[in-house]
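Researcher:
Attend to token order:
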Amino acid sequence: MRKRGSVSVFLALILMCMISLTMLMLESARTSGARWQAQNIAVAGVDSLFSEYNIKLWKRYKICLLEYIDDNDIKECLNTYASSYNTVSGNYFLSFPDFDINEKKMITDEGGAYLEKEITELMKYNIPIINNIFSAPDTLLSDAESADSSSKLASDFDDISEYALDLEERMKKITEKLSDISKKYEEAREDISSERADDFVRKADDILKAIGGLGKEIGKYKKEAEKTRKKIEDVYGRDEDFEKVKDEAKDSLETTRNAYDMYKTEHEKRLAELDALLAQYEGQKQAIQTCIDTAEEIRKLESDNDEENDRSSEIADLYEMLKNDWELIDIKKELPSSEIDEEKKQKLYDLKKLIDEGLLELVLPKDRQLSELSIQDEAELPSKFKTKRSSTLKKADLKDRVIINEYMDIFLNDFTDNKSNSLSYEKEYLIAGKGSDRDNLGETLSQLLLLRAGLNYLHIIKDSKKLDEAKVLATTIMGMCALPELTFLLEFFIISLWSFAEAVIDIKKLLSGAEVPFIKQAKDFELRAEDILSLQSRLDSIGSEEKEKEGKEFFTYNTYLKILLLMQNQEDVNYRFMDIVQMNMKKEDNNIKMRNMLYALDVKMNIESSRFFSAFVYEDGFNLDEFKIEVNTQRAY
């Protein structure tokens, strides 16, 4: 007879297995829920922390950043916020959380990349009205860089032209020395004919001294010629600037460079001629000294000559020998040199010096005074704590930079706003990065001068009438020219100065509130070539003129600043903007530092949960009462 109850045992075993499986499945679901709840707690804690952004900074600059003290303070805040959410964790039985910081990103990190993100995100919801000129920023930047490079190269060619004109002045002195030697030589010849030995000796001594002076003058000439040669080589080595220049300007600069090559070749011939001349004169010094010795012997005989000791025939023979020896001495009367209108040349020099050294005084409106504000506590500025951008972070493209510039235009002042903060000329500081308003405005206007001069230069070289004007003025100043290439060099010098002089007027109009076209037409030019010799009188009338009418082809000082900003290194602009923000915010909170402003945070939260359903399955010996949960979360403004 079979035993009964086997089915009951089987069902009991099956039931235990099913209950265990069910409990394990419920525990697994509960564990996943606990992890999900832990993730929510971590996110809520970080969000609560980030809600403590600096409200004053937001109100003034619309930037959300958390003022960071230290890691312990952040962890304590996170633990507090997360714990408040933990009270509603229900049946998950979560313990108190404990946060660790994996990584923190400050607004000053990565070359200011996070500042760029903040600004571009903000501007998505505050779309500005952007000038049409910035609709194609690539073309605009290319034109601006071409104009800037053209100005720099033109300015360098100006220096070479100035050196070349100075060499002509030095050559004139050499010719004067030669003329002086030739004159004394002829006077000495007359002394021989008139048998005046004493006078001859003095003249011959003067000739020897003059030859020594000639050698010094030639030495000075060669020294300045070497400076000119090095400057030419330096300009020729500026391939990067030549590459940036647009084709129409490049052709003109290439023509100019060819003219300088021709001048260089002709000048090398002149140097060889001067070396030969000096060698010739050095060779004549011994012959001159021999003639002096003969004249000294004549003087001695003349002093001994009397009725008792007649030496007349001997003296006559020596005079004849002196005459023959003197005729053998080869004295070059002159070398070809240029006759330059010194007054007009000096006016060109004075204009160049005035533009180089006195631009601020030239363009400042009569009714405005320069701000004398300067940066205080410069060592604490964010720009002093720059970091390089890592390769994983892309640089802002030109479109983003246009947007960033528009943002900065909203919140910062420039010269024409006539307002005062820590610095009055904040946009100029973005461009120049100097320690005072005066220096920032000066550097910004210097960059604007190069930009406007380059654009003016591009117009002049395409205008045949203006080129003719420059040629006429160059010919008038040069007069008789020893080296024909010099006239072309002076012509280019005049064109370049004309471009810069017109740019000075442009800047003064911009600072006075008028508008100036980016690309000028003939009707827009204020100066003729001859007007550059009297620029100051033209500048005096700018302030009282009626302002230009607005139009899409004309741009204000503010627009030109935006163009200059596009030409700057964006990372430098980022840090300089943070400098301004910190300086201005310190008036409200003296302890604020941008390098302590948190942009993003990566944290790890450790938390524990007690098991519930698995307790019905496992014995206590498995030690499964609690388990740890580790959650990572990131947050950025």
About this structure: The beta strands are 66-67, 98-106, 516-517, 554-555, 597-610, 626-636.
